[in-house]
Write a structure and sequence with these properties.
Length: 251
């Protein structure tokens, strides 16, 4: 929801700047409407066009890297869950309660995947309790021989790796594009759009162009911000690795 409101606010700023400039141009004093003044306004706008393009490129690259990194970590997380389940199976039927808790944890992750999910499933408190329950149930086991003791130790170490990977995903879920950078970019784009309305003819085509251009520019920034937070919004990391892991655990 936050990204949507940001996109709407950006659209209002951009389209509003162009339309306001179009409306108030005739009210400027005559010496403010000369060709020299228009040339200076255009030059200033062109400067910020270049700077805005550079910042947009950096934001796209940053969001792309964030998305790819988290997608890789989700695949790794799913793999570690499967390995943990295999380690529990190796110990024997005594780990059935721990495997059931692990299965319930992974089932909750898969069920919680939704475009409107506000909190990443990996960061959910109940999910954390289910994962911790696996450790509690393993701690209650008493290995009858050295072979079982080694298997239990391996399972505990694998569980620790799963927990560490989970916290990595939690820490990566908020995005890394700083708000001041977004605000600065919007300010530059607002100035550029305001220059569009300077001395522009007043007709429906121009007004429609301003509105459509503002909507497209705002949508582009919205998609970049949404990609920077891959656990929410329409652009999300695929839950397929977790679904495959769940299918493996249920075999």
């Amino acid at each position: 929801m936050g990204e949507v409101l940001t996109g709407v606010a950006i659209f209002v700023c951009l389209a509003g700047a162009a339309l306001v400039s179009l409306v108030i141009y005739d009210r400027f004093p005559e010496h403010h409407r000369q060709e020299d003044t228009n040339a200076v306004v255009r030059l200033a706008a062109n400067l910020f066009v270049v700077m805005s393009s550079l910042v947009l490129g950096l934001m796209i690259n940053s969001a792309k890297n964030t998305f790819e990194t988290i997608d890789h970590n989700v695949h790794s997380f799913a793999t570690q869950l499967i390995i943990l389940d295999r380690a529990l199976r190796q110990y024997g039927p005594e780990t059935a309660p721990a495997r059931a808790s692990l299965n319930a944890y992974l089932q909750r992750l898969v069920d919680a995947t939704s475009p409107v999910q506000k909190t990443p499933a990996v960061a959910n408190r109940l999910s954390e309790l289910l994962l911790n329950k696996v450790g509690d149930e393993l701690a209650e086991l008493t290995p009858p021989e050295a072979k079982h003791a080694a298997a239990l130790q391996g399972a505990m170490q694998q569980l620790q790796r799963v927990i560490e990977q989970r916290w990595v995903l939690v820490e990566q879920s908020d995005g890394i594009i700083p708000v001041p950078l977004i605000a600065l970019l919007v300010a530059w784009l607002t100035l550029i759009f305001a220059s569009f309305g300077f001395r522009a003819p007043r007709n429906g085509t121009v007004v429609g162009t301003f509105i459509v251009s503002g909507a497209l520019a705002a949508s582009a920034i919205y998609l970049i911000l949404d990609m920077d937070t891959p656990f929410s919004g329409p652009i999300q990391v695929s839950p397929a690795p977790l679904q495959r892991a769940l299918a493996e655990l249920k075999q």
